[in-house]
Each structure stands twice: as C-alpha cells, then as structure tokens.
Fold these 4 entries.
Entry 1:
Amino acid sequence: MEKQVKILIVDDEYSFCKFLKAFLEKRNYGVLFTTNGEHALDH
C-alpha cells in the first residue's frame, strides 16, 4: 500500500489555491492550503 503524498500550498490568491487543490486531489494527493505565510508555518 502506497502512502498518500501530502502537499501544502501557500499563495495569496484564494481562487488559485482552490483550483490547484482540486486539481491535485483528483490525482490522489492530500492537499492543504493557506493564503497566509505565518499560518503555513503552523502546518
């Protein structure tokens, strides 16, 4: 069984994050995103 690769997207454009998240999830990646750099450091 393969482990799911997880990706953290950090970009200030919310719509781009949503698009990229949907694109990657269709390819079986686990995706989190944030539009705030400080918040990204918490992940």
Entry 2:
Amino acid sequence: MTRVHILESENVFDEMFSIAHLYNSASSYTAKPIHIQPIFMSIIFHHYKQLARLSREIEEVKRMNDNSTICRN
C-alpha cells in the first residue's frame, strides 16, 4: 500500500467515524463488547471505502455528461 493510499484510508476512516457520533446514544447501551466487532468494522470500513469511491466516480461522470451537453449547445 502506498503512502497516498494510506492517507486516503485514514481520511475515509476519520470521515466514517465523524458520522458515527450520530449513533452514540444507541451504541452506549451495549453492555459487553463482542469480539467479532473488529471484524465487522473492517468489513464495514472496506464497504464504506468502496461506496465513497463509487459515489465520487458517479459524480465525475455526471459532471462530464453535463459538460458535454453544454458544449453541444
């Protein structure tokens, strides 16, 4: 993994956890942490990164389509 990928992963991870505070009250009711939680978190993190990348790609394609429509007119 290159330094750029590491920084991108750190940024995505920070972004993901900044959203997590919305659910702190619900998660505070957990009495005993489950040992499988880190595994689930890694899977969720991986999927979150994929969704974020796909979302950026979709927005880029939309902008390209909008620009090509403007150029035709």
Entry 3:
Amino acid sequence: MVFIEKKYILTLNREKCIGTGVCKATAAKRWKMKEDEKITLVDLSAKKTETTETLEFDESELQEYLDAAEACPVNAIKIEEKESGKELI
C-alpha cells in the first residue's frame, strides 16, 4: 500500500495584511517582512502577484502554516486541502 501525503494550498492576501508580523512570530522560517511592511512567503516556489501569494505544501508543514493563519488578526491567510478544496482556515 502506498501512502500519499495530503497537499494543501495556502493563499496570502497581501492587501488585507496590516503588517503585525504575528505569522512570522509563529513560524519565522516561513515568512519575512517586505519593505512595504507587509508579510511575504519565504518559499521560492510560492506564486506571487502584487496582491496575493499562493503556495502548495504538504502535511509535514501544515501545523506551522495553520498556526500562522490562526494568529493573523485580519484573516489574510487561507489554507485549503488541495484535492477536496475544503477550507481549513
């Protein structure tokens, strides 16, 4: 039997970000503050536009990203299961 690890999609809405940095405080190796005082994803595979960033990641990284999303005071970070589209936060 082959175990297939679940995949997730994170979407960061940079327009909603107010730059508190709580996401960085919960998962410092995943985030950094940009010159505009808004957060950005560190992962180079993230797809970035001026207003949004998306990243596909696996279950081994889920808890760190969930912690960051739950800590965000303006709900700028959304996470969903890739296969089902079910929103986790």
Entry 4:
Amino acid sequence: MNGFLLAQLLNFGIIFLWLALLIVAVIRLRRVPLSDTSRAIWALIVLLIPIIGSMTFLLLWRDSRSAHRPS
C-alpha cells in the first residue's frame, strides 16, 4: 500500500511540475520579443515536449525584458 501511495504522489508531483512549467512558459512566451513564426515553433515545442520543452525555453529566455536573442 505504501508503494502505491508513493507512486501516486510522484505522479501528482510530475503533473504539477508540468502544469506549472507550462503556465510560466506560455506567459513568458507572450512577453518575449519573437517573430510570429518563432513564437509558434516555441509554443509547439513547449506543448509537444512537456517538461523538457518548457525548461529549455525558460532557460534560454530567462530575462523576458531583454531584446536580444540568446547566443
């Protein structure tokens, strides 16, 4: 029974992490100065590669106020 509860808590944590990263990435994606094509590509990456896509976007675009692209 404890193993089942632990597995359920782990699943809940992963889903919560995914939703939190998704929400933050989408909000920040709207604020970053990108072309419409780049914005659409990043939106697809964030949605189709759930946790890794969001984390990659957030790491590359840390400061949403900067007008330069990451190198």
